[in-house]
């Protein structure tokens, strides 16, 4: 059986690779992926073959990985974060039946909601959801509905893809929707370049988020009504303080 691994690299630094992810890449002959993500592992695995594509060529990228695997080579399709969270794992599984004797193995990684949360402290200490503001593949009206429902339920929210050159106003629209149910003074935070050179974290209030300099390499965290600032950190209490005075 020919093998394709869908590998989540985490934030990008080698120290964030899981043991399972590193082992899968070591077993592979070819590393495939979006150019930016493959560049994160080139130095760590210089003896491998590489195949890369640019953004918006996800289907071509997965087909090529499966075609290479058909020749008998083991392939690692690398993704940032977790390969099953806005990654290539699902697409590989969908396409694999069209190819001969291909097994897809999904290798989990540390998604930005978790790695970014650690930088900020513990903003995701209770029930949370992850919502992408990219409407490239998901209609904006669907994203709006998800934001509104999350706000009504007072979920903690990790926002992926909060702003790009073309989607300048999406974060403001999202904040306006959330402020229909959340206080404008809700504690929030964001982390740029998680686990990479230039990493920086910031704490802000929900009403101020639209004016913050976030981009596609930023993950935004929006608290619930219990979220508080403790020094340089954000914490959303789980509720232990209700049992005992902390």
Q: Which secondary structure elements does this structure contain, and how are they paired or packed?
A:
Elements: E1 2-8, H1 19-27, E2 30-34, H2 35-38, E3 49-53, H3 58-70, E4 75-79, H4 89-95, E5 102-107, H5 112-120, E6 121-122, E7 128-132, H6 140-152, E8 156-160, H7 170-178, E9 187-192, E10 200-205, E11 218-222, E12 228-230, E13 233-235
Parallel strand pairs: 1-4, 1-5, 2-3, 2-4, 6-13, 7-8
Antiparallel strand pairs: 8-11, 9-10, 9-11, 12-13
Task: Describe the structure using short key phrases.
5-stranded parallel β-sheet; 5-stranded mixed β-sheet; alpha/beta; 7 helices; Cobalt-precorrin-4 Transmethylase, domain 1; Methyltransferase, Cobalt-precorrin-4 Transmethylase, Domain 2; 26% helix; 246 residues; single chain
Name of the CATH architecture of the largest domain: 2-Layer Sandwich
Query: Secondary-structure element sequence?
Result: EHEHEHEHEHEEHEHEEEEE
Q: Identify the strand order in the major beta sheet.
A: 3-2-4-1-5
Q: How many β strands by DSSP? A: 13
Outline the low-pLDDT stretches.
Answer: none
Question: CATH H level of the largest domain: which superfamily?
Answer: Tetrapyrrole methylase, C-terminal domain
Oligomer state equals: single chain
Task: Write a compact overview of the structure shown.
The chain has 246 residues and is of the alpha/beta class. Helix content is 26%, strand content 26%.
């Amino acid at each position: 059986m020919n093998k394709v691994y869908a590998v989540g690299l985490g934030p990008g630094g080698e120290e964030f690779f899981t043991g399972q992810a590193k082992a899968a890449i070591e077993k592979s002959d070819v590393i495939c992926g979006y150019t930016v993500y493959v560049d994160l592992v080139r130095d760590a695995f210089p003896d491998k073959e590489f195949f890369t594509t640019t953004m918006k060529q996800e289907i071509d990228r997965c087909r090529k990985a499966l075609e290479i695997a058909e020749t008998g080579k083991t392939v690692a399709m690398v993704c940032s974060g977790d390969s099953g969270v806005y990654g290539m794992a699902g697409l590989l599984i969908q396409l694999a039946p069209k190819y001969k004797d291909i097994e897809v193995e999904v290798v989990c990684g540390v998604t930005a909601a978790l790695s970014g949360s650690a930088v900020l402290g513990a903003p995701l200490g209770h029930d949370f959801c992850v919502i992408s503001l990219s409407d490239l593949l998901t209609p904006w009206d669907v994203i709006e509905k998800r934001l509104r429902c999350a706000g009504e339920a007072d979920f903690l929210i990790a926002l992926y893809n909060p702003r790009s050159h073309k989607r300048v106003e999406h974060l403001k629209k999202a904040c306006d929707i959330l402020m229909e149910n959340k206080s404008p003074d809700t504690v929030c935070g964001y982390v740029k370049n998680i686990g990479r050179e230039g990493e920086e974290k910031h704490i802000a209030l929900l009403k101020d988020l639209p004016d913050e300099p976030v981009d596609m390499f930023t993950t935004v965290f929006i608290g619930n009504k219990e979220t508080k600032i403790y020094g340089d950190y954000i914490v959303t209490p789980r509720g232990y303080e209700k049992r005992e005075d902390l």
